[in-house]
Please model this.
Amino acid sequence: MTVIESTPIRADPAPDPTPESDACTATGPTPHPRPEGQDRYTISEVAAFTGLSAHTLRWYERIGLMPHVDRSHTGQRRFRNRDLDWLNLITKLRLTGMPVADMVRYAELVREGDHTFEARQALLEQTRRAVLARMAELRGTLAVLDYKINFYAEGHRG
Model:
């Protein structure tokens, strides 16, 4: 079983022993309210919770970005809280600009288990460096915008 960096507080009856359940998904407070005690969600409920489309959720599953999603007796997807936690992390990684291929690789490493911690860390550190470089680039862009805004504001007064 892998180790979760931090565990959100919720009333799950027992931890799921699969590697996907301990997928280092905890990223802080839950961004969307979840019904107390509920741990089964339809794809439309997950789309509402996450802001992702049902199409995107199916695509994530198809490309291996989502761990195994449970199915009902009729074959409908039944997402769990651990899936919502994972989607929260994936959404954050996507916002960093991490390529989907790297996100899929990260998911594969998580599924492989604890012995991949170093590889996961390296992948996240690489992404962090890219985010910091992008932030520096955006700060420079913001400075140019501020300069132009001030230029026009001062020119308009005169």
Residues 2 and 113 are 6 Å apart (CA to CA). The two ends are 68 Å apart (CA to CA). The first strand starts at residue 70 and ends at 71.
